[in-house]
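Hi support team,

I've been running sequence recovery on a batch of backbones for a student project. Most finish fine, but this one hangs at about 90% for roughly twenty minutes before it completes. I'm not sure whether the input is malformed or the queue is just slow. I've pasted the structure tokens below so you can try to reproduce it. Let me know if you need the job ID as well.

Thanks,
M.K.
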């Protein structure tokens, strides 16, 4: 049994499971659309909204932890005929299904966050780029958009104000790299989802070269509660540099896998042995792959590190999407390495040589390690190749292969 009460610390998931996500009135009864109503009735100027988000310290939950207020301010300052808000609901990270829970369980929270973001930066149109396989989420969001138009939370002159905002859905087609913000933008434009060279960043030149804010679902779901309860309330959760909560997806060899929202500063020991109930079959913990495929793989020495965006940088890793993949003592780390590398090879868009060729060569060498005992494989060369990919790949997909590869060699050296 999970100790649910102890792990009840919810901002983002407060409505999930408690309201009927297909009924807009249920959302309204939980103070839904109250923040949007306040701002469109001119209680706050766009600058006020940006200041509140900046003061709250909210950081993007899509992986990089970029400050949301600074991102909005950047786009707000751009002079352009049009601007866009994009909600990144592609969620292709292996072992991650947190955004799905929000989309399915509290769809109006996303719409409200996007309306507020649009008002703050001066955008009148939003897109939700949603993972194509998420059929229930697509249905719920579609239904929520229809109901929000009927109640005038969306459309022209929202609630009698002078602010107009429309939202449209675009479905992804199963490509991991389309979750990267510039390939996602290409995909919405109807092109092949190849990443663009940055700069310029989407905040300056995004959709059809207009300034565009791209934010993750979980980031956007924090916006309305912050506007309602204030920046100081939000900062009372989490750590100084990573305020608020994070949704973790706990998977692998644990007794109770699942999704849990916890304040930053929590440790992996609490997540795995507290919420997760420990390692399945009472085996020993061997490894934790933290933050998704591009994150680092650790041994048990990471268990007591308080988790926030900065603490993990020091550990040459990242919190990423919040995926916590647990492996027990029976796991063959050579095969796991191969598995991760296969994923990168498969998802590489092929646009640039270091990633296209690099991922293929790394897979071949990982095969040799497994099949020939690694005698002819130069592990130093594999590490060097990931350095080259880090320095020369066009987008973060190729650049990030270095993290799982080097950490596996570091923490599980005796297996190679
Ligand atoms: C290969 C790759 C896949 C990504 N997939 C996602 C994704 O599924 N969802 C997401 O929100 N961000 C994803 N990102 C991060 C986005 O590029 C972007 O940083 C994020 O959507 C910004 O939102 P935030 O500021 O709210 O975190 C991915 C990045 C890379 C490099
Ligand atoms: S790094 Fe990989 S995914 Fe990114 S552009 Fe190059 S080939 Fe494509």
């Amino acid at each position: 049994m999970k100790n649910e009460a102890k792990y009840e610390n919810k901002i983002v998931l407060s409505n999930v499971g408690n309201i009927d996500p297909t009924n807009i009135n249920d959302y309204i009864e939980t103070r839904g659309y109250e923040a949007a109503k306040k701002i469109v009735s001119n209680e706050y100027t766009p600058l006020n909204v940006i200041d509140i988000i900046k003061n709250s310290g909210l950081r993007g939950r899509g992986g990089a932890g970029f400050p949301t207020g600074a991102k909005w301010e950047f786009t707000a300052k751009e002079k352009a005929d049009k601007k866009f808000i994009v909600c990144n609901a592609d969620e292709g990270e292996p072992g991650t299904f947190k955004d799905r829970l929000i989309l399915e369980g509290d769809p109006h929270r996303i719409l409200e966050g996007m309306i507020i973001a649009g008002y703050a930066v001066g955008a009148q149109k939003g897109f939700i780029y949603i993972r194509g396989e998420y059929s229930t989420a697509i249905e719920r969001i579609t239904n929520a958009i229809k109901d929000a138009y009927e109640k005038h939370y969306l459309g022209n002159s929202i609630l009698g104000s002078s602010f107009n905002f429309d939202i449209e859905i675009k479905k992804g087609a199963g490509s991991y790299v389309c979750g990267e913000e510039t390939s996602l933008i290409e995909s919405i434009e109807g092109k092949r989802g190849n990443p663009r060279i940055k700069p310029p960043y989407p905040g300056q030149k995004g959709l059809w070269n207009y300034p565009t804010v791209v934010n993750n679902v979980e980031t956007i779901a924090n916006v309305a509660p912050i506007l309602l309860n204030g920046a100081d309330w939000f900062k009372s959760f989490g750590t100084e540099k990573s305020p608020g909560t994070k949704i973790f997806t706990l998977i692998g060899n644990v007794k109770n896998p699942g999704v849990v929202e916890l304040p930053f500063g929590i440790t992996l020991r609490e997540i795995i042995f507290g919420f997760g109930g420990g390692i399945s079959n009472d085996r020993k913990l061997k490894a934790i792959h933290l933050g998704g495929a591009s994150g680092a793989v650790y041994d048990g020495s990471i268990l007591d590190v308080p988790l926030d965006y900065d603490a993990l940088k020091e550990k040459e890793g990242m919190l990423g999407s919040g995926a916590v993949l647990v492996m027990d003592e029976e796991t063959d780390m050579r095969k796991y390495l191969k598995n991760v590398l296969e994923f990168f090879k498969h998802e590489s868009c092929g646009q640039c040589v270091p990633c296209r060729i690099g991922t293929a060569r790394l897979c071949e060498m990982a095969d040799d390690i497994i099949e020939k005992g690694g005698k002819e494989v130069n592990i130093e060369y594999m590490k060097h190749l990931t350095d080259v990919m880090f320095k020369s790949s066009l987008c973060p997909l190729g650049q990030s292969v270095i993290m799982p590869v080097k950490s596996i060699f570091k923490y599980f050296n005796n297996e190679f």
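--
Follow-up from support: It reproduced on our side and the slowdown came from queue contention, not your input. The chain has a mean pLDDT of 94. No action needed from you.
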